[in-house]
Amino acid sequence: MSSGPVRDPTSTSRPNWFLRERALTEAQSAAQAAVWRTTPTTRAGRLALMDYARFQVALYTGGETDPDVPAYLFRDIMSAVTAAFEADCAPASDTATHDLSGCDLAQLARLYETWEGVFHHLTGASEIPCFTADRYSGHTPAGEALDREYDRAGAFLSDIAEEVRGRTAVTADERRERLGVLIRDELNTNGRPVNDALLAELNAQHER
To answer: Is the pTM here over 0.70, yes or no?
Structure first.
């Protein structure tokens, strides 16, 4: 009975199984490198990255809970995850900017009051189940869009307050409008007035 072909021990050629194994390893390494280089910008993408990292740990250690991860793999995973979360925390590149220099203090005050309502509405809306996946995984895709607009609304409120802060009030009405915006901004930012200069200005206004 034939036992199959006998390899020449002096031969330098590789067996087919070795060549296939090497090709698979090279493809796996190329795919892994491509994943680590790709920075996800959505929640779904970040979750997929974490799943892939768990898969790689299991592949190299034989179990997801095995802490003995090779140093190079840990470095690659942490670099990719850090980049993903840095991208998530970065300011939106399409943040709207507005030239408020042409607005008088009364217009700025009304604009602040109007946008403050939008800001607080978005704050409450973020708790609607449609926008929140669960207490651990954060927002749904719709919730992520809402959260970005919430950040933009807060930034615009700050821009209005900064414009008002740089203005000099001439009349009593202008002083009231200016102080009204700055006090509201303190409450929205800190929960209570903490700016000593603003408190002194408010007290001086009250004594007039």
So the answer is: no
